[in-house]
Design a protein that fits this description.
The complex is a heterotetramer, with one copy of chain A, one copy of chain B and two copies of chain C. The termini of chain A are close together. Chain A has a nine-stranded mixed beta sheet, with helices on both faces. In chain A, strands 5-8 form a two-stranded antiparallel ribbon. By secondary structure, chain A is of the alpha/beta class. Chain A has helices at 16-26, 68-78, 88-95, 152-160, 212-224, and strands at 4-9, 29-34, 45-48, 83-86, 102-104, 112-120, 136-143, 147-149, 164-168, 180-184, 190-193. In chain A, strand 3, helix 2 and strand 4 form a beta-alpha-beta unit. In chain A, helix 1 crosses helix 5 (212-224). Chain A has one domain (4-224): Rossmann fold (3-Layer(aba) Sandwich), CATH 3.40.50. In chain B, a hairpin with a 2-residue loop joins strand 12 (365-369) and strand 13. In chain B, helix 10 (257-272) packs antiparallel against helix 13. By secondary structure, chain B is an alpha+beta fold. In chain B, strands 8-10-7-11-9-12-13 form a seven-stranded mixed beta sheet. A seven-stranded mixed beta sheet of chain B has the order 23-25-22-26-24-27-28. By secondary structure, chain C is an alpha+beta fold. Chain C has helices at 17-28, 53-67; strands spanning 3-10, 34-47, 73-79. Chain C starts with a strand and ends in a 5-residue tail after the last strand. Classes of the chains: A alpha/beta, B alpha+beta, C alpha+beta. Bound molecules: adenosine-5'-diphosphate and magnesium ion. Magnesium ion binds next to helix 7 of chain B.
């Protein structure tokens, strides 16, 4: 069976082609999805890619969240379809309330692009099962508004329920509360991640290939399902 | 203003003596007279607006044209050149059916007034130029010059410029793969913000800016037109700042990178469906430029209904609409049968598109405002036949004195002891010009698009353009205003030589050149001489290296009062590499590899970084240029990369061998043990800036093959050491730990800028 | 043809790095005596019609669902004086 | 312990891409009747002392030189009602 993974293009999406490439390198079939279409063509999973959808105007992800495609994505995510939001995609997921918290301006007030070390703290989600628990990986990070914030109660709950999927190691690049780089919903099918695993899938163009695991994880999950 | 009496063509004919603000618009008396002669009457207000912006220095190249001609006349024959100077950007054949277009432009004056928006719109403008050729933009670079690093105004200008370049480029999704950051007090009131963009297309996708085919429709698409930047780029970049700032202060333009991203995607889709006959971006001089250039380059005339232009501000007059430099707009010529599809694609991308006119079989550019004619001109006289000046130039009287002031050992005290040499190396590595630039470059996305093979800090940026075959291109930009001040002819050649060497060092074969010529006021004969010399030097050198100039940009009037910046030709070289897997990085990564110094080192410290850092000295002659040697060095570096003989290479330039070792060692996290060859002065070895040199790391298994090749080709290659340990050790003189070096090198920018 | 202003500020418990950066810079620029700075957003909405209660209710809803992210932000809606 | 508010808005002739993006989105979300949206910044300054004329003059200067970029932005300074 070929696994079909949809990658949504919003106006201003930038890493959509890169996410498609990562899906392809992982062995799945990337399917381009368009923000104006409610139809997501029976894909098995969806990636919301990085970029500056709607220029990041108002707030990152705030305008995209209301696009027709998101109506379908939100509904199916609630029914268990795996969804990965990377960077801008993570912001869309928070604005959609599929994930708690919000992503705000980096504490440095600068955009930051760097190779970032992470620890995978939950290898049980749909998107991380190919990693070992607590595996350390390096993938690029690039954002201007990547500081994850939530109230104390939410943060405690995320930690208690094992929903912190990845944490920054060595350097907290944006001031995220509790060094949080990525989280999941309670069911583990929806994951939001600030760093960019799709830019660490080829040794030639990234810091390594340690990001590929996100895309192979979903493949394995869907094939085994 | 629109309520005012409309100055129509017939009204102009009836009122020959009406007063007109030609001087305020920057025209000279004789230029105004010439417009009257061309038209056989006084121009209308709208015509005057068009001529004044199009005949400005920025748009007409009236002072520089006579010198730029050489780039065409002396151009080396090159099979690679598909489109040359005169179009929005040159196009180069890189094989496998691919073509690459690239160009560097300046946005100096706007970036001084409003650093963020000035720099941001600089990126926006050059990206549209590349797009207008039919190419998908794939990367940007940003050669920058600022005043003294510790000057308070630098703390205003630099962070704003960097945030603007990042803000716009990141939001467009274009990786930033290189650039330059140089500080010198001469740029205090005139920072240089040059921006380069490179784009990729298939040969058959090349588009040109011309309007032909009577009946074809003129479509304006992109942002609405507003009152911002009226005459901004053109007028602003065509005058000198007085001490109190610019005399005219036109509204600043604000960029909308999101709109530009939509414009890119929409334009590429329109190209893919072959819906476009001709296309032009709107940059300096806005609609005046786009309509007159399209009509001038095409076969017929053009008729435009100006009142159809979508406005952001309903009160704009026809003159203002013609002069507005609102960003993120393009103008396309489309056959009538394809208009509907064109508009559909624009709608898909939420891009406003409006038919504003059509190509006629006449010979005039005619513009109407609510049915009344406000412009009736021969388009060539606006776009391509503006005034040209043979400005007087003369070698300045201080040039001899400057060149006589050579940095000899008698004149400038040189470090001798091991401790002195070590201190000199550390000071140099920590000086803002040589220090680590990641405070700046970490604000730029270098990963987006997933094809970045090399990015800063490397000798050149490298982009993969075909995922199947691994075909790639490399680009480097270089320029050294200090060298050019000492000798503009040689300085321009050194800029080319350095960029050429940087491209070759990464394993790519240099093919073509773009240049941005940043100078002071052309009305000063000394500056004009610098300009003439630099053009002559660059054109001559391109001939020898076989790399034609494909396009570029001139920025004049970079001066405050009587004081001009150092003449600063910035040269970009584009190279091709068949397999990006074969690229050569600059990091020393493998313990035990042998370090070879290629080329000859002489006592050449005129204009050097050492003279600047240690003695704040600028005098003497710049290093000599030997272009045949550059070419040979390049061939060796490319062959060694292709055949796997070297694992690292780094060109030697400012700061000489010392700085090159610092960079290669820190990048790879490995030390080096260096033996100063018998009879060599360690100071000269470390700090001379002789051109035509590089260091390479050779695996021991390849040593014989590599030295045989150098020997057979006659390139001096000296084994000077080995990659080893965690310090740089100059045996018998000093040793400096990488940690100490790293601290010195990395902490400068954070300390200056927070 | 009224103008309605929506002010959006980060909730007090959310760190405001922009406001802090301003606050830190002010004394360096010679402006003392400012104990706290918060930076937020101001939206000016020009209405086609009057700012009646029904319209304001709809604008409050737009602010709640769209102009502000109430996970981290508070907002206020007010009609701006014409005189201004 | 007064609070002073500085509102900073882009000058009318300057393009406001953020405001435009909001304006375009509002009808899609079902909020009609809004003819123009401009987005600016709001700074809330908490003073150590009272908002007397001398203090306000200094704040106006800070706004002029620092909080606003007067090349492209206008600003207003006002003391916020305690009641609010
Ligand atoms: N220094 C230069 N070297 C080579 N070509 C140049 C130089 N300056 C300008 N040109 C060429 O002159 C032409 C007109 O330049 P310009 O008006 O800046 O183009 P555009 O309006 O597309 O930016 C272009 O083809 C440009 O490449
Ligand atoms: Mg152009």
């Amino acid at each position: 069976m070929t696994v079909r993974v949809g990658v949504v293009t919003f106006p201003g999406s930038l890493d959509d082609r890169d996410a498609q490439r990562a899906v392809r390198l992982a062995g799945a079939e990337p399917v381009a999805l368009w923000h104006r279409d409610k139809d997501i063509h029976q894909v098995d999973a969806v990636v919301l890619p990085g970029g500056f959808s709607y220029g990041d105007y108002l707030r990152c992800g705030a305008i995209s969240r209301f696009s027709p495609v998101m109506d379908t994505v939100i509904a199916q995510a609630r029914d268990g379809m795996p969804v990965l939001g990377i960077c801008n995609g993570f912001q869309v997921l928070c604005e959609s309330h599929l994930l708690p918290g919000a992503l705000t301006r980096n504490d440095s007030l600068h955009f930051v692009c760097r190779d970032q070390k992470l620890r995978i703290e939950n290898a049980g989600t749909a998107w991380t099962s190919d990693y070992a628990q607590d595996q350390e990986i390096t993938v690029p990070l690039k954002n201007g508004e990547g500081r994850f914030v939530a109230d104390e109660h939410t943060l405690d709950a995320l930690e208690a329920e094992g929903r912190v999927v990845a944490r920054y190691l060595d350097v907290n690049p944006n001031g995220s509360y509790r060094d949080i780089a990525g989280i999941s919903n309670a069911a583990g099918n929806v994951v939001g991640l600030m760093p960019h695993p799709e830019h660490a899938v080829e040794p030639l163009t990234g810091p390594g290939t340690e990001g590929l695991g996100f895309f192979t994880s979903i493949l394995r999950k869907l094939v085994n399902a | 203003m629109s309520q005012k009496h409309l100055d129509t063509v017939s009204h102009a004919a009836e009122t020959p003596d009406a007063e007109q603000p030609w001087a305020e618009l920057g025209l000279k008396q004789d230029e105004y007279q010439r417009i009257r002669d061309i038209l056989g009457r006084r121009p209308t207000g709208a015509e005057l607006a068009m001529y004044s912006v199009m005949w400005s220095e920025h748009c007409s190249y009236k002072s520089s044209k006579v010198h730029l001609k050489q780039f065409g006349e002396k151009a080396p024959a090159s099979d690679a050149m598909l489109v040359g100077i005169g179009e929005n950007a040159g196009v180069v054949d890189v094989g496998q059916g691919y073509a690459v277009t690239f160009k560097v432009e300046s946005h100096n004056h706007p970036s001084y007034i409003e650093p963020y928006q000035g720099a941001a719109t600089g990126i926006g403008g050059i990206v549209r130029d590349i797009l207008a050729m039919g190419a998908r933009p794939v990367a940007v670079m940003d050669p920058l010059r600022f005043g003294a690093a510790d000057h308070p105004d630098t703390k205003r200008v630099l962070p704003g410029v960097v945030a603007g370049i990042g803000g716009y480029g990141n939001c467009l999704g274009l990786p930033n793969i290189g650039g330059e950051i140089v500080f010198d007090p001469c740029y205090q009131g005139n920072p240089l913000v040059n921006a380069l963009c490179v784009g990729v297309m298939k040969h058959e996708d090349i588009h040109l800016a011309k309007a032909s085919g009577a009946g074809n429709q003129v479509i304006l698409y992109g942002a609405r037109t507003g009152g911002d930047g009226i005459g901004g780029v053109s007028v602003l970049a065509s005058e000198t700042f007085s001490d109190s700032g610019p005399a005219k202060r036109p509204a600043v333009q604000v960029g909308d990178p999101f709109q530009e991203k939509l414009l890119i995607e929409c334009t590429l889709e329109v190209f893919a469906e072959k819906l476009v006959v001709g296309i032009q971006d709107l940059g300096g001089a806005g609609l005046s430029c786009a309509t007159s250039e399209l009509a001038s380059a095409g076969s017929g005339g053009m008729r435009v209904e100006l009142d159809r232009v979508p406005l952001r501000d309903a009160t704009l007059s026809p003159e203002e609409i013609l002069m507005s430099e609102s960003q993120e707009r393009m103008c396309a010529i489309v056959e009538p049968g394809k208009v509907a599809r064109f508009l559909e694609i624009c709608e898909k991308w939420d891009v406003i598109a409006t038919v504003i006119g059509e190509v006629t079989d006449g010979e005039r550019l005619e513009i109407f405002w609510h049915g009344e004619q406000v412009v009736d001109v021969p388009p060539r006289t606006v776009a391509h036949e503006g005034p040209t000046y043979q400005r007087p130039y003369a070698r300045p009287d201080w040039q001899d004195e400057l060149q006589a002031d050579a940095p000899t050992a008698e004149r400038l005290k040189r470090p001798v002891s091991g401790d002195e040499l070590k201190a000199a190396l550390l000071t140099l590595a920590a000086h803002p010009n040589q220090a680590d630039k990641s405070w700046v470059t970490s604000q730029y996305d270098r990963y987006v698009l997933g094809n970045t093979v090399l990015a800063q800090p490397e000798d050149s940026g490298m982009i993969r353009i075909d995922e199947e075959t691994n075909l790639g291109v490399a680009i480097a930009t270089d320029g050294n205003g200090r060298y050019a001040k000492l000798d503009p002819y040689t300085g321009a050649q050194l800029a080319l030589a350095e960029a050429y060497r940087n491209v070759a060092a990464t394993g790519a074969k240099p093919l073509a050149v773009t240049d941005c010529l940043n100078f002071g006021s052309p009305e000063d004969p000394a500056v004009m001489w610098q300009f003439a010399e630099a053009c002559r030097g660059l054109a001559d050198a391109c001939q020898v290296l076989g790399t034609p100039v494909t396009g570029g940009n001139v920025s004049l009037y970079n001066q405050t009062g009587e004081t001009a910046i150092h003449p600063t030709p910035v040269v970009g070289v584009l190279g091709v590499i068949d397999d990006v897997n074969r690229r050569t990085p600059m990091a020393f990564a493998e313990e035990g590899q042998l370090i070879y110094l290629l080329g000859d080192t002489e006592d050449e410290l005129g204009g050097s970084a050492w003279a600047q850092v240690a003695h704040d000295h600028l005098g003497g002659l710049p290093p000599k240029v030997d272009l045949e040697r550059e070419r040979l060095l390049g061939e060796i570096l490319i062959a060694a990369s292709r055949d796997g003989m070297i694992d690292a290479a780094h060109d030697l330039s400012d700061g000489g061998l010392a700085q090159a070792l610092v960079e290669s060692c820190l990048k790879g996290g490995r030390g080096a043990r260096i033996v100063v060859p018998q009879g060599t002065d360690p100071f000269v070895l470390l700090f001379s800036e002789s051109a035509g040199r590089a260091i390479v790391a050779v695996p021991r298994s390849e040593e014989l093959r590599f030295t045989d090749m150098c020997g057979a080709r006659g390139l001096p290659a000296a084994r000077i050491g080995v990659v080893d340990g965690d310090s740089i050790e100059i045996q018998g003189h000093f040793s400096v730990a990488l940690d100490e070096l790293r601290t010195a090198h990395l902490e400068t920018f954070p300390a200056l800028l927070g | 043809m009224a103008r309605v202003v929506v002010d959006v500020m980060l909730k007090p418990e959310i760190l405001d790095p922009q406001g802090q950066a301003v606050q830190r810079a002010l004394p360096r620029l010679g402006f003392a005596g400012i104990s706290d700075v918060r930076q937020g957003k101001r939206f000016e909405l020009e209405l086609d019609g009057p700012a009646d209660e029904a319209t304001l209710a709809r604008i409050r809803e737009a602010a709640e669902t769209f102009l502000a992210n109430t996970v981290i932000e508070d907002f206020t809606v007010r009609v701006e004086e014409e005189a201004k």
